[in-house]
Inverse folding.
């Protein structure tokens, strides 16, 4: 997830979830989020909205509301302002957003000590205990889901975790009340975190007081994509966003659960793009093939660098974004990461971010772009005006794949 911590000024930082899987290791991005939504449009349809978000300063992010309950009870709270992220896996909620409910959620333990996760991103981490909750959206409920509560008070962040990057432990730093990771993998780390020894990437810790040690965490106990644990409509999602012809204050959309399970989530003529073993598709730009991914959590088209694109970077504080002298049009072609026949040419435009952000009433920017090294991060602007399918890995679905 590539995120922006503030609305104005905006500062883009690469935040890619480092997930590990036996065959497919995926990553995604996290982008600035916008506002909360409530369920609507059917028993498998959840409203989402792009606006300034719970921090009041988030640009180009998509938010929804998630209902969290103590397992098997009616002791619940609705958490608004949760970032919808197709580039990560699992539900993570700020302790402050859960309030008193946090104390009613059963804690996962290892050797009698709390199990705490260091959710690893490229330039930051989320630190907090793993707890169990019932998670509901629209007409769907997943029971006894492992979630992460973002709460540094459980134990000091160990050096092995903080070395990755600073913790985003409150609303001011995260810009959202939580993250709903609905990428195509079920657990957030997979078999790598279930292993012992040097191959374990160190997501999960057992903490006694201020002392924390990396542990092997079984796949079933890892923080998991709650949609994959629904009793039905659990094989994937469709993120359906309204078209946005120009910058605006807000925009709406729908998160539809299931693929081909109801009349509102059929694939139709959508093209399928399977990921390669690194969880990426292939994007051809100016005759060169790059790795790419579709990530609603990123708040811009983040692609390549100024040398390759011919655009200049903005100066501080917007240095992560592009500031071309005039609107610049591009074209790139997406192909399956596995070399399948699917191909889709995407035409998009990039405007000067400094000029876009001058209107402080707007939080939706369909022409926002920034640099991203040597990859294509198709962030939220790509989703505007499209229905993007995310098919989960087996056994939940027939994926992993994207389709649009």
């Amino acid at each position: 997830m590539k995120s922006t911590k503030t609305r104005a000024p905006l500062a883009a930082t690469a935040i890619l979830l480092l997930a590990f899987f036996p065959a497919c290791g995926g990553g995604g991005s996290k982008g600035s989020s916008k506002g909360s939504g409530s369920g609507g449009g059917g028993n498998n349809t959840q409203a989402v909205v792009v606006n300034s978000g719970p921090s009041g300063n988030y640009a180009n992010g998509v938010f929804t509301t998630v209902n969290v309950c103590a397992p098997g009870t009616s002791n619940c709270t609705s958490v608004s302002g949760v970032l919808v992220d197709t580039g990560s896996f699992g539900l993570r909620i700020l302790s402050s957003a859960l309030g008193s409910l946090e104390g009613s959620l059963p804690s996962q333990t290892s050797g009698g000590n709390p199990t705490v996760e260091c959710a690893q991103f490229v330039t930051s981490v989320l630190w907090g205990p793993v707890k169990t909750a019932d998670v509901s959206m629209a007409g769907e409920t997943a029971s006894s889901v492992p979630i992460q509560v973002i709460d540094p008070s459980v134990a000091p962040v160990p050096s092995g975790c903080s070395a990755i990057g600073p913790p985003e432990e409150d609303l001011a730093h995260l810009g959202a009340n939580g993250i709903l990771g609905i990428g195509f993998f079920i657990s957030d780390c997979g078999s790598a975190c279930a292993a012992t020894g040097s191959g374990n990437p160190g997501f999960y810790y057992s903490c006694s007081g201020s002392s924390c040690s990396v542990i092997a965490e079984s796949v079933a106990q890892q923080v998991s994509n709650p949609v994959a644990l629904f009793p039905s409509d659990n094989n994937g999602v469709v993120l359906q966003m309204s078209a946005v012809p120009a910058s605006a204050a807000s925009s709406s959309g729908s998160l539809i659960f299931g693929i081909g399970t109801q009349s509102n989530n059929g694939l139709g003529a959508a093209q399928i793009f399977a990921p390669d073993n690194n969880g990426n598709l292939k994007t051809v730009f100016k005759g060169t093939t790059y790795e790419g991914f579709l990530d609603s959590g990123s708040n811009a088209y983040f692609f390549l660098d100024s040398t390759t694109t011919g655009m200049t970077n903005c100066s501080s504080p917007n240095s992560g974004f592009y500031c071309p002298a005039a609107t610049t049009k591009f074209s790139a072609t997406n192909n399956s990461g596995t070399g399948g026949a699917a191909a889709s040419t995407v035409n998009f435009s990039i405007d000067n971010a400094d000029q876009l952000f001058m209107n402080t009433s707007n939080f939706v920017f369909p022409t926002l772009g920034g640099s991203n090294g040597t990859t294509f991060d198709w962030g939220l602007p790509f989703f505007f005006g499209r229905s993007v399918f995310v098919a989960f890995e087996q056994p939940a679905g027939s994926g992993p794949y994207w389709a649009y």
